[in-house]
Design goal:
By secondary structure, the chain is an alpha/beta fold. Helix content is 32%, strand content 20%. The chain has a 4-stranded mixed β-sheet with strand order 1-5-6-4. Helix 1 packs parallel to helix 3. The longest helix has 11 residues. The chain starts with a helix and ends with a strand.
Length: 104
């Protein structure tokens, strides 16, 4: 009861030394608000871990985000219901929202 699927995924990704954590969901990325309720919500292409935590964006639970941040593990949030998106994500195509360390 104290470990969410997001935290378990982050932990497993760390254990297997994954290069990226793929967060498959029903929306095509991370938004400023719930896009199913707010048609004016803005989709982000890239976010830092700090932005996610500071703005309380509901990408994953805070433990999972913190674990990914501590281990420099990027997260790709994408819509798995759109045909071909899983393959696009695996191929590294620019879909969804990438959460990670932003280069200045």
């Amino acid at each position: 009861p104290f470990v969410t699927p997001d935290t378990a995924a982050a932990l497993r990704a760390k254990e297997i030394e994954a290069e990226i954590l793929l967060k498959a969901t029903r929306v095509d990325g991370v938004y400023s608000d719930d896009p199913e309720k707010n048609p004016h919500a803005v989709r982000y292409e890239r976010l830092s871990y700090e932005q996610v935590l500071r703005d309380r964006l509901r990408v994953m639970d805070l433990t999972a985000i913190s674990m990914c941040m501590d281990n420099h593990l990027p997260i790709l949030v994408f819509n798995f219901t759109k045909e071909g998106n899983i393959e696009r994500a695996i191929a590294g195509e620019p879909i969804g929202t990438l959460v990670g360390e932003l280069r200045k």
